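Researcher: Let's do a round of design. I'm pasting the structure tokens now; please hold your answer until I've finished.
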């Protein structure tokens, strides 16, 4: 359809520039749309805060494509259509007795969008969401279909693909037997004690999140998601890091309603209702926020956190909340954790884009000595000249994109700015 009004992203900070938005209802229609297009991008759940999917020409939504979730118990995998949300997938898997290894904060995001940008959950032994992918299926620039499986030559370059290689139609993901989780939130852990034994804090749960505004001497909230049956360090419970368990459900934002968050207070329940921070049946906000995130090697975790704490006078006035998580290393070329275990320094900003963008170069300069990699779907200042040196397989990815999309049909201003150059 021709667009009379511009479509907005989830946060409302970006109006997409596409002249036309199409909703194919079959693979055949999708292939034809891609084949005849001169320039095309795919609109997913709109939870990107930058122009990664923006275009001045054709935009395609997969929202009306057939929703598919096919579990293979023998292979311990599930094949899903690209537009499926993690919340919808988690419900189906849980009902069948299976699980994913992790979830992001929001269950509302699409599988394809999260995988393509290297989005992650939390846990020192868990890779990002893309590491569960064992096969990708996509429509190439000429309208042909391609399937690549784990172990194939180009696979590690195609999973975190930034939308630069083709249109994802289906993904196959590894699954696990379903498990139960208990979530407990501790308030006001001592920063000094946390940083003195950061490893013990991270070893205290299947997934650990530290929420802070970077001011003061205490971590605001520490969310512990513990898989029932795991043998874990209980130093936090025993008061080694100070702080006390919350006595009511809390929200990461001070004063916000904890009822929309995943169930806390140590109540046992399925992974599908605990690993994400927010419940699928509630939106966590009206979208009035911006986000940035930087992935830092694990060996620099304490130094990087200390560096950001020193920037509190600059950061805190624009901040809603910040989160620190751990992620395991992987082999995916453009993943923020390619070839290194790491931590994520996440920033949820007030909706003041000019002011936020003005301080991002200062944050990135402060983190530069730690080889911090920005999350591809969030706000950052770095361009191709800085980003290229952060990824050992950066040029391999460019060569792969040149081969699969020689005319640059899937490229846009974002990709020219951050990957391919002008």
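Researcher: That's everything. Go ahead.
Model: Designed sequence:
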């Amino acid at each position: 359809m021709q667009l009379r009004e511009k479509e907005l992203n989830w946060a409302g900070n970006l109006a997409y520039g596409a002249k036309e938005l199409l909703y194919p209802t079959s693979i055949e229609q999708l292939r034809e749309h891609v084949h005849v297009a001169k320039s095309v991008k795919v609109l997913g759940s709109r939870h990107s805060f930058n122009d990664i999917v923006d275009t001045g020409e054709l935009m395609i939504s997969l929202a009306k494509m057939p929703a598919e979730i096919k579990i293979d118990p023998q292979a311990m995998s599930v094949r899903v259509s690209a537009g499926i949300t993690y919340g919808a997938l988690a419900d189906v898997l849980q009902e069948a007795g299976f699980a994913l290894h992790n979830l992001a904060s929001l269950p509302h995001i699409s599988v394809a969008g999260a995988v393509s940008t290297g989005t992650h959950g939390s846990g020192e032994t868990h890779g990002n969401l893309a590491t569960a992918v064992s096969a990708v299926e996509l429509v190439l620039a000429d309208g042909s279909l391609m399937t690549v499986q784990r172990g194939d030559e180009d696979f590690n370059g195609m999973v975190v693909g930034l939308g630069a290689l083709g249109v994802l139609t289906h993904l196959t993901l590894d699954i696990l037997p379903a498990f139960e989780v208990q979530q407990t939130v501790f308030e006001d852990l001592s920063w000094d004690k946390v940083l003195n034994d950061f490893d013990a804090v991270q070893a205290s749960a299947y997934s650990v999140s530290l929420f802070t505004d970077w001011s003061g001497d205490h971590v605001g909230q520490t969310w512990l998601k513990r898989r029932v049956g795991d043998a874990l360090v209980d130093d936090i419970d025993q008061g080694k890091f100070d702080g006390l368990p919350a006595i009511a459900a809390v929200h990461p934002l001070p004063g916000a309603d904890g009822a929309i968050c995943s169930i806390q207070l140590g109540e046992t329940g399925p992974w599908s209702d605990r690993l994400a921070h927010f419940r699928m049946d509630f939106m966590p906000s009206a979208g009035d926020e911006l986000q940035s995130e930087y992935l830092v090697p694990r060996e620099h975790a304490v130094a990087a956190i200390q560096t950001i704490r020193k920037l509190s006078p600059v950061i805190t006035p624009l901040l809603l909340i910040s989160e620190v998580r751990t992620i395991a290393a992987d082999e995916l070329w453009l993943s923020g954790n390619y070839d290194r275990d790491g931590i994520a320094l996440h920033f949820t900003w007030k909706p003041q884009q000019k002011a936020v963008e003005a301080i991002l170069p200062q944050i990135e300069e402060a983190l530069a000595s730690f080889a911090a990699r920005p999350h591809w779907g969030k706000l950052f200042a770095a361009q191709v000249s800085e980003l290229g040196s952060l990824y050992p397989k950066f040029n391999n990815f460019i060569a792969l994109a040149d081969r699969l999309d020689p005319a640059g049909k899937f490229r846009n201003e974002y990709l020219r700015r951050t990957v391919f150059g002008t």
